[in-house]
Amino acid sequence: MYEMFAKKRVAVIGAGMTLFRRNLKETGKELAYEATKMALDSSGLTLDDIDCVTLGTAPDAFDGIHMKGENLLDGAGGWRKPYSRVFVGGGTGVFTAESGWWHVASGLFDTCLVVAEEKMSSCFPHPQYAFTTIFDPMMDRPLGINLVWIFALEMHRYMHVHGIKKEKIALVSVKNKGNALDHPCAQLPEKITVEDVLNSEVMVWPVQRLDISPTSDGAAALVLASEEVAKKITDDPVWIDGVGWCIDSTYWTNRDLYYPKYVECAADMAYKMAGIRNPRKELDVVEAYDPFDYKELHHIEGLRLCRKGEAPKITEEGVTQRDGDLPVNPSGGLLGVGNPIAAAGLMKVCEIFWQLRGEAGKRQVPGDPRTGLAQAWGDLMQYGSVIVMRS
Amino acid sequence: MQGLGCTGFKSVTPDLSYKEIMFEAATRAYEDAGVNPRRDIDCFITCAEDYWEGFSIFDEFVPDQIGAVLKHLFTVTADGLYGLATAYMLIRTGHFDTIAVEAHSKASDILTFEDIVAFAIDPIYNRPLGGHPYYIAGLEMTRYLHETGNTREECAQVVAKNKKNALRNPYAGHGAQVTVDDVLCSEPLFYPLNRLDVSPLSDGCVVVVLASERVAGKFTDTPIWIKGVGWNSDTPRLETRDWGRAVYTELAADMAYKMAGIRTPLDEIDVAEIDDMFSYKELQNLEALRFCGPGEAGRLTEEGITDRDGSLPVNTSGGLLGVGYSLEASGLQKLVEVVLQLRGEAGPRQIPNAETGLAQVWRGIPTTSGAVAILSNSA
Q1: What is the ipTM of this complex?
Q2: Do the Cβ atoms of A90 and A56 come closer than 8 Å?
Q3: How far does A154 lie from chain B, in Å, by closest CA?
């Protein structure tokens, strides 16, 4: 599999996103529309030029709408078009861009609109209640388990295996919230210190308030086109050269949580497709999934950008700073920009698009980046989705 | 299409969990296709909606029982035919050789089916109206019959035909000998729909294995070829949709016909499995698929053209009326019938010399989305 005999190269030619906020007044449909409009406008196309639409949005339970994809259809521009929705939990945002890729790479469509929407604020009193229904009703739910608990288990395991101190992990939160100061859509941009993180409220040890991304409303969108069409529209396309995804076993209690094997498997699929042999050398900018600060470190290791247990070290050395050798989350990531689940993942793909086009403004990483990667993580600590793009 | 596995469909499966029916269908499919899922399958697609399952992020609970642990799997939240179309696209990219598509129903686990469907209704404009959401089908049927001149009796004829066909299908859970009068005299539910006009629910699971042309010969001598796929959506809004026509079926069919090079469906298609969640839907979809003009589907049915021994056999499996509506597995259930017919393995309901078949599905109340697939036993 993955041989390079595919004829069709797929380009990203436009991107857009809404503000990310705890509680936006717009409905889900309206958020999807805003992001879609911005992406279309930036590409110079109109909805009439779009051949098909693919949507990403995370649990229906947030909005309390069964078949949420069908409900969002008109807001996302899917009316009287081939329209469908993919769903892989937290990995959905990046994966939606990957689904756009196969719509065009198959040769069936010349243009594809990729939309990701999330409205978490509809869930009262807090979206965390919706997350209680992601667990197995017989094995896990009776424990009264909560999402932050299981990530605390994972964080603890990661710290224990490699002997990592919380101070080192907190650096990620400091970096990302700082980067978000330059993002016009960001929800929690902040200049903070490691001390602030360590002194913030303990949620479930070792997870503290400033280790976690917020819950958010928001949407993001991309316009994809075949090579033929892209070359007519823009001199500056960004190519999707590799896509990868992987799922691990449902039984997370039977896995060693210190390392995200599924992210490695997804990355290997994308690297192979993109012809990348040494990701650390060949990637110029990376958006790794950071709903928690330790997750960025976890994922840098899973993406094979450093050896297992070394991510805190390269973070401390400043390698992952925006002006470092390998900038990670120059957008501000989920910790800084916000975490409307599916939209947050697609925001990362948008960021790579803007970085590779040199359109990231104050967030632009130096040195004319040519190759970028966005990654997301989902389901029960079991899903990886990875996309590699080149300018 | 290399192989398929099906558990059969029945109204309850108290002995098996959703994971166990998926395991059963997957095991049968891999055996039928001659593949080892751990070695030979590049990608797995599951088709599921959270609310049917009673989970958020159902994707989590899929990999182990179908052999996809640490492999490439994802969820399409739609009917199994959307999964088929997605697999078709992935294979066409040239990066994938074999893909398994899974869809299942454990409708018997749903204690409050009506309420779950109601959650799909727009929460601001329409949900406050209350009532069982199937009233939308009653409204649509009224409008459809009014616009086309098809009759209530012709709809009942569809029920009699499909439930009778189901008696010859071991996979079907709701076969029966009923007459037009039985249908017309059954309990009124959502005017003008009576109890027998509405598909009953079924449990069941289908897994199909697809392969690229390149490796097709490796596993089987008699593949069935996918000639075209199409899917489309009209508006989700009740206020602005076309109540008389199935616009989504028309557009999905246009796409699939174009891909398959089909100009006159009535002449070129030998066997069709068409969405019949409600009796009138079969007629409406027959017209949308351009097997006949608007208002002619009732006559086609009355004349026996869509009977098992007619010139265009429709829903030889028994359709959703006879097999049961199996949530997101409905489309794959129809696909299974088409494949069995094209392989010549449909037993007592076999259509002679079937070469090209069509499967079509609608995503049900309150959606205006649907998909079409066209298959053939010759490349």
Answers
A1: 0.96
A2: no
A3: 17
A79 in contact with B at a CB cutoff of 8 Å? yes
Q: What is the mean pLDDT of residues B199-206?
A: 98
Q: Where are the alpha helices (DSSP H) in chain B?
A: 18-33, 37-40, 50-53, 63-66, 80-92, 113-118, 135-148, 152-166, 180-185, 213-219, 247-260, 265-268, 279-288, 297-302, 319-323, 330-343
Which of the two residues, B360 and B223, has the higher pLDDT score?
B360
How large is the average pLDDT for residues A324-335? 98
With CA atoms as reference, the chain B residue closest to A95 would be B74
What's the pLDDT tens digit per position in A13-60? 999 999 999 999 999 999 999 999 999 999 999 999 999 999 999 999
Residue A173 — φ and ψ, nearest 5°? -65, -40
Query: pLDDT category, A5, cuts 50, 70, 90?
Result: very low
| pTM exceeds 0.95 for this model | yes
Q: What would the CATH number be for the domain defined by B127-199+223-376? A: 3.40.47.10
User: What is the rounded CA–CA span in Å between residue B173 and residue B10?
Assistant: 4
pLDDT digits (tens, 9 = 90+) for A226-260: 999 999 999 999 999 999 999 999 999 899 999 99
Q: Which residues of A touch B73 (CB under 8 A)?
A: 245-247
Are the beta carbons of A249 and B63 closer than 8 angstroms? Answer: yes
Extents of the domains making up chain B: 3-111+203-219, 127-199+223-376
Which residues of B are less than 8 Å from A266 in CB distance? 72
- Count CB-CB contacts under 10 A for residue A105: 25
Residue B230 touches partner A, C-beta closer than 8 Å:
yes
Give the per-residue SS3 of B220-240: CCCCCEEEEEEEEECCCCCCC
pLDDT at A1: 39
CB < 8 Å to A226, chain B:
none
Answer whether A250 touches B (CB < 8 Å): yes
Q: Nearest Cβ partner of A107 from B61, B92, B367?
A: B92
Domains of chain A, start order: 10-125+213-390 (3.40.47.10)
pLDDT of residue A7: 63
Q: What is the number of alpha carbons within 13 Å of residue A8 lying toward its C-beta?
A: 26
| pLDDT exceeds cutoff 50 at B5 | yes
Overall fold of domain B3-111+203-219? Peroxisomal Thiolase; Chain A, domain 1 (3.40.47)
CA distance A91 to A263: 10
- A63 contacts chain B (CB < 8 A): yes
Would you say residue A6 has pLDDT above 70?
Answer: no
Closest CA in chain B for residue A262: B70
Between chain A and chain B, the number of residue pairs with CB atoms below 8 A apart is: 191
pLDDT at A311 over 50: yes
Pairing of strands A371-378, B188-190: unpaired
State the nearest Cα–Cα gap between A83 and chain B, in angstroms.
Answer: 6
In angstroms, rounded to a whole number, what is the distance separating the alpha carbons of residues B114 and A238? 47
Helix (H) or strand (E) holding A116: strand A111-119
Residue A104 and residue A13 in contact, taking contact as beta carbons nearer than 8 Å: no
CB of B275 closer than 8 Å to CB of B320 = yes
Burial class (CB in 10 A: 0-12, 13-18, 19+), A309: middle
User: What is the rounded average pLDDT of the residues A168-172?
Assistant: 98
Average pLDDT over chain A reads 95
Q: Please indicate whether, in this complex, the C-beta atoms of B72 and A65 are within 8 angstroms of each other.
A: no
